Every structure is written in structure tokens, then in C-alpha cells.
Amino acid sequence: MKKGWKETPIRGIILEAGSAHEYSTGGWRKLKPVFDRTKCIDCMFCWVFCPDSAVIVEKGKMIGFDLEHCKGCGICAMECPDKVKAITMVEEEKEKK
Amino acid sequence: MAAEAKIKCSVGLTGNSAVAYAMKQINPDVVAAYPITPSTTIVEEFSGYVADGKVDTEFVTVESEHSAMSACIGASAAGARVMTATSSQGLALMWEMLYIASGMRLPIVMTCVNRALSAPLNIHCDHSDSMGARDSGWIQLYSETVQEAYDNVIQAVRIAEQENILLPVMVCLDGFITSHSIENLCLLDDDVIKKFIGEYKPSQPSLLDVDHPTTYGAVALPDSYMEARRQQAEAMTLSKDVIINAAKDFEKISGRSYGLMEKYRMDDADAAIVILNSAAGTTKVAVDEMRNKGLKVGLLKPRVFRPFPYIEMAEALKNVKVIGVLDRADSYTSFGGPLFTEIRSSLYELDKRPKIINRIFGLGGRDYGVKDSLAVFEELLKIKDMGKIDKVYDYISVRE
């Protein structure tokens, strides 16, 4: 439950850092990135270019996407090197079916 | 009274000089301004105090009023006590920033020297500028005289910075009529003012508080915007008592009494004029003339327009038979000016509502003399006798 107006800090200020993480932007997505681990060379281009910090990397390996925050812009698929193309953008609805 | 010894009286100053002097005594951290007629000399004289080292203020010269208010907002968010002044087109150019100042709850104090808006181009007094900004979330205080302008500026700092308020305050006085007329007034001692306004210590971390990084001016989407606005409305509601209390404390240091409004010979008045700023002074002369003839008339001069003291307004006007609200600005509703619609709305709860008319006067500096005031009173008394209103909304002192 979100805070009521009496509890919300006044002035519209945000008192803690990194609070954008709490705001889920995944629902904005129309196209969803699908990742093929067998093709990935861990070049980190997708990680660098993702404007939403939605590429998850652990111990130097690209392991997938934070779909709570990925807006489906497709920059990762675009930047993935031509010879690799480990990321494809698919229609969210079609993928569900 | 010990306080009286500290008051310097019979000092002759123009309205603008008095405001600039109050600003000098307040010694704000930052003043960002772009001078515009008729408020120019406030900024001009204050910049003199800065140049002469009489204040510690960081004086920011900017390229427009939009930038002036923007700089004030940045400085206030950084925790500074901030003041500025403007008029007319300058206030109009600040428009979007006015809402940002109030939305971010920044206690900026601005003097608005009332002047007409273009077009046609005009530099003289009316209230179109500040009345247009009446819904921008600023507290608005209106001043009849040079003394009231000086006193309101000092009280505005105290009101704006109250912990439960944190709203910007606009102090309005009439362009040229008050801003450029020399009046005798009483000035308070620097120390007395310092004690009255206290030190500004914002309780939230400011932009410059590197130990507590805080985001100011972030986006608030539909899930949080309304909470911020609700808080703002609450602060405006609470500000009424804060304004009253500030006036009470101010009376202790000055001997001058202020409230939400001034009632002049209202006790048994059958007819009353409601009017803002300097024109109230003219109207008082007319009230005295009518009273000398045995006619029961009075004057109500609102001092606080935002928040609008609708309960007190109804209480003050409930026994009057006919009210004439005189607006020095039109809202182009084809129904009445901004003061009229607020007063008329305030009376709605009364069981027995007085008759009420609206007259637009004095636009672009058109003279409002005692004879104009007397003519309105005569019309009001005629309405009282006839029991009917011919025209609810009309212009006076306009060539037919």
C-alpha cells in the first residue's frame, strides 16, 4: 500500500537514492527481448547501451533481462554485434500465446 | 512599551523604497530579479545595498523574469532565504515557474507591484497581473499604503517559512499610486525584524546537503501527483491561522494591527464597498463623507486574498443590505471580476444573503476618485431602497 498524502514527504522530494527501481516500467513494453545464451559472446554491448539498466550481468556473464524494468526499446538487439545477434525482439502478445 | 522606543517614525519613503528597505533589513541569502516598471526601483535600490555591502545577499542578475523565478527556485531548494520583485508582464513571464515554486513548497517572498497587462500596452496600476496568478498556489497579501507594504513584506517571510506552510508569498501594492508615492511611515529596527523572522532552517535536506542526497522536482505520475497537491491545499488552508498569528506577533513589535481584512465603519453599515489596495484609502474618505450626512455606509478591505477567508468574509458582510465589490481586474467571465466571484460565493451559506453588485474600475491606471466611490455608494443605497438590482456587473469611470 502506498503512502497517503499525510505520510508522503512534502515538496515532492525523494529522500532516498535509487528509488526509480521501485517503479516498474515493464508494463510499457510491446516488444520483449528474447536471449539465446548459446550465441552470446558476453561483449557487454547490450549492458552498456540499455537505457533502463535492465540487462542482468553476473560475474561477467550476460544472464538475461530485468523484465520489471525493460521497456522493450530494442536497443540491446540493435547493438548486439551483427555476427552474433543473440537477442531478438518478439511481440509480447504473440509470445504469450 | 519597550518596543515603541525601537520604532523610527515619520520616515518619508516611496512604496518601492520601503520594500527595498525591508528587504535590506531581512537580508535574504539570494535575490534574483529582472527589473520591470513599476517595480524597478525595488531591485535598483536593493542592488545598491548589495553594492555597498549593506547586505550579505547573493544578487543574481538574470536575462528575464522566467529566469529570475527559476534562479529563486534553485536557490530556495538549496536552502536559501530568497526574495524577488516584479510587475505585470514580468509576472506573466514567470507563470510556469510560479507553479513550480509553490508545488515544490519553496518559501520565496516576492513583491508584486500591481500593473496592467498588455494589450494595449500600459504601465499603470491595475490588478490583472496578481489576480491572474491567484490560482498559482501562492499566498497573496494586499497592501493599501506604503506602511502596509513594508509591514506585509516582513510578515510574509515569517508566514512563508513556517514549517507547516512552506508556501511562496506574494505581497501586492499598487503600481505608481503606492510604489512611487512618498508616505510617512514607521520603520522597525533591524534587530527587531531579525528576531521576528528568525533564521530559516529548512527541516528537509536541501540540494546542497551532500550527506543526504535528495531529489527535488522529480516527476510524479498519476499514482503520486495528487498527494502532493492535496498537501499543498492543506498548507494553504492552515496558512490562515499562521497569517493571523504572524499579525498578532507583528503588532507586539510594531503597534500596528493586521488581520485577514480591515473593516472601516462597518458596524451598522447598510451598504458597503469591498475593495483592495490603495483605492480603499480613497473609499474611506467617501465613507466619512457619507457618514457625515448620516448615511450608514462602510468599507471592507481584504488583506489576504489567498487563502480566501470566506467564513470571515461572510461574517463581516452578513448584516449589510447591499454590497458593491469593486474589482481592479476583470476575469472575462461576463459575470464579474475575481474579487466579486469570491465574495459572492462566500455569502452563499448565509440564510439571508445581502444584495451584491460588481463594478470594474481603475483598469490601466484610470483614476478612482472620491466622487467615483460616492457614486457607487449612492447606487448601493438606491438598490437598498428600490429592492432591485439593475446590473450585477458593469464598468465605472468608462466613457460611453
Describe the structure using short key phrases:
heterodimer, A: 97 residues, alpha+beta, Alpha-Beta Plaits, two-stranded antiparallel sheet, 4 strands, B: 400 residues, alpha/beta, Rossmann fold, 2 domains, seven-stranded mixed beta sheet, six-stranded mixed beta sheet, 14 helices
Question: What would a concise description of this structure say?
Answer:
The complex is a heterodimer of chains A (97) and B (400). With 97 residues, chain A is an alpha+beta fold.
Notes on the structure:
The complex is a heterodimer of chains A (97) and B (400). With 97 residues, chain A is of the alpha+beta class. Chain A has one domain (10-96): Alpha-Beta Plaits (2-Layer Sandwich), CATH 3.30.70.20. Helices cover 15% and strands 20% of the residues of chain A. Chain A has helices spanning 45-49, 75-79, 92-96; strands spanning 31-35, 55-58, 61-65, 87-91. The radius of gyration of chain A is 17 Å and the shape is elongated. The model of chain A has no long low-confidence stretch (mean pLDDT 92). Chain B is an alpha/beta fold and 400 residues long. Chain B has helices at 2-5, 15-26, 40-51, 65-77, 88-93, 95-103, 128-132, 146-161, 190-197, 225-254, 279-292, 310-317, 338-346, 370-386; strands at residues 8-14, 30-33, 58-61, 82-86, 109-114, 139-143, 169-174, 182-187, 261-264, 271-274, 297-302, 304-306, 322-327, 355-360, 393-395. In chain B, strands 3-2-4-5-7-6-12 form a seven-stranded mixed β-sheet, with helices on both faces. In chain B, α8 (146-161) packs across α10 (225-254), α11 packs across α14 and α12 packs across α13. Classes of the chains: A alpha+beta (97), B alpha/beta (400). The interface between A and B is medium-sized, with 15 and 24 residues.
